[in-house]
Backbone:
């Protein structure tokens, strides 16, 4: 289990990305934006220390 918030964001991003390949409903604009936010959080939070 991830111990940090950035670890959780990374796990959720890969889960989200993987599911969107198989579930067409996850490829809409709103869901793509959620994936983008998770990717940004995964990149930024380790530098902040979370």
Residues:
């Amino acid at each position: 289990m991830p111990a940090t918030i950035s670890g959780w964001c990374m796990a959720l991003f890969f889960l989200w990305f993987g599911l969107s390949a198989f579930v067409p409903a996850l490829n809409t604009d709103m869901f793509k934006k959620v994936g983008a936010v998770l990717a940004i959080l995964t990149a930024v939070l380790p530098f902040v220390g979370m």
Q: What stands out?
A: Helices lie at 5-22, 29-48.
